[in-house]
Write a structure and sequence with these properties.
The chain is mostly helical. It has helices spanning 4-26, 32-62, 67-93, 97-102, 104-135. The chain has one domain (4-135).
């Protein structure tokens, strides 16, 4: 199965997370407009990525002859639903510069928690799950 587009989307998400990290280091309140724009932009990539996973990748894995990969796909999909909900809450809270400016430390704490979870999940997909899919 070809998953190159998923990998490209992961790279975009990694880039967004890195940019948010850099904005936080250089000043959250000062970079609030850029942070809010980036949260919106990253959300678009994540929504597209999740939609394609749910409508193409996971159904294809469920129908595959590889029972282990089908099971693992179901587990990854279920796990991602919880992470996606947390990310969506994060994105709703921090998609305006006013919200970021009014609570820079709240943004920092939320970003550290939610984006770390998202980053770790994507890295696990890149290191463990996608190589299995490509090998099949």
């Amino acid at each position: 199965m070809k998953i190159d587009k998923f990998k490209v989307q992961h790279e975009k998400i990694y880039g967004c997370i890195d940019s948010l990290r850099n904005y936080a280091v250089t000043g959250i309140a000062e970079n609030a407009p850029a942070i809010a724009r980036l949260v919106i932009s990253m959300s678009s990539v994540i929504k597209l990525h999740l939609a394609v996973e749910d409508t193409v990748l996971y159904p294809a894995l469920k129908m595959s002859a590889n029972a282990r990969l089908a099971k693992k796909g179901g587990e990854y999909q279920a796990e991602m639903k919880a992470i996606a909900e947390k990310y969506q809450g994060f994105a709703r809270r921090w998609n305006t510069s006013d919200a970021v400016t009014c609570d820079p430390e709240g943004f920092r704490a939320d970003a550290n928690r939610v984006l770390k979870m998202l980053h770790e999940r994507i890295r696990r997909e890149d290191r463990e799950f996608y190589p299995e899919i490509e090998a099949f």
